[in-house]
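Appendix C reproduces, verbatim, an entry submitted by the partner laboratory led by Prof. M.T., so that reviewers can inspect both the input and the predicted structure.
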Amino acid sequence: MKRAIIIVLDSVGIGELPDAYKFGDEGSNTLVNIKKAIPDMELKNMCSLGLCNIDGDEIQLLGKCDNPIGCFGKMAEKSMGKDTTTGHLEIAGIITEKPYPVFTKTGFPESFIKDFEKAIGRKVIGNYAESGTKIINDLGEEHIKTGFPIVYTSADSVFQIAAHEEIIPLEKLYEICEIAREMLVGDLGVGRVIARPFIGTPNNFTRTKNRRDYALIPKEKTLLDVIKESGKTVAAVGKTEDIFAHRGMTLVNHTTNNHDGIEKTIDFINKTDNGLIFTNLVDYDMLYGHRNDPLGYANALMEFDKKLPDILNSLKEDDLLIITADHGCDPTTVSTDHSREYVPLLVYGKNFKKGVNLGIRDTFSDIACTVSEYLMLDHKFFGKSFLGEIKKDT
C-alpha cells in the first residue's frame, strides 16, 4: 500500500532566501557554513540521494555524486515567517500570510501579564527576550526562592515558561502553559507556548528533555487532517504532535532526542502499512543552532547520515521518502535565532526515478501537493505536485 514518510531536519537550511535581508539574515547558509566551519563534516549518504547536486554556488562543498539514487531540489518559503510552526504548516499545505506576532522589544503587555498572573495564582518574573539557557542562569535563583515561573520570549513568536522541576512540578508547569495558550489569542496569538523545565543549582542549571510545545490550532485542514479523515494512518514522531496541536494523528511517539526519533521512525515504518509518517528531529535547532555550536550541529548531522541507510533499507516497495527542513538556524552567524533560508528537498523511493533535479520550488507546500496526489486524496493544497517528475514511466 502507498505510504509517505516525511522527515524534517529541524533548521537545516541551505542558503538565504531573496528576502532574507528583511529578516536580518543576509549571509545565512546553515548547511554550507557548517561545512566551512567544520571541514571534516561528511554527509556521504545524504549526498548519495542528491544533497550535493542541489542548485547553488557553494553546495558542492558538501561533496560530489555523479549518479544520485534520489531526486533533489530546494524549496522557498511562501509564508511570511521563519519559525517552526510556520514552516511545518507550509509543509503540510497551509500558507501563513500574516506573520505570528513577536514581542522581542517590549515583552508581553503588562495588562496581559497581570491577567495571566491572576489566572495562574502566582506572580511571574522575566518577560523579556533572552536565550533560554541564559535567562535560567540569570533568574533561576530568584525563581527557586519565590516559586515564580520565568516568562520570556525570543525573535520567534513564542511565549516560554521556564520552571525548576523541583519547584514547579511538570504537570503544574504544563497546566500553566495550557492556561497561557488559552489566553494568547487575537493580537497576542503567538505561534507557540513552550514549557521549559530545568533542574540543577545556581550557576549549574540544565534544561531537561521534558519540554512541551502548545501551538495554535491550524485554521485550515492540514495534510495530516486530510489523511486521517481518509481512514489512513498518520504517525507523528518527535514534537510533530505539538506543532500540529495534537490534531490529525492516529499514532504518536514524542521521543527525547534525534537518535530516539530516528529509531521510532524506523519502528513505525516496520509496523504501519499506509498513510503518513511525519518526523521532526529537533536537536539540530534546539541544541546546536540556537547555541551557535557548529561542531555539535555537524556531529548531529553526521549521526543522521550514518543512520540513513537503515531508514532506506526499512522502506517498502511503495514508500515515498521525503527529507527536508522547516527553516534555517545558522550556528556560524552572530544571531542565535532562526534564519530565513531555502530548505533542502531529498526524495527517494524504490519505485521512483533516480537523479531528477526538482529545481527550486516556490513553496514548501509542494510536499503536501505531492503526498496528496500520491495517496489519491480528494483535497487540493496550494502549490504544485512534483509526483509527475519522479514517477517512472509506465
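The mean pLDDT is 96. Additional entries are available on request from the coordinating office.
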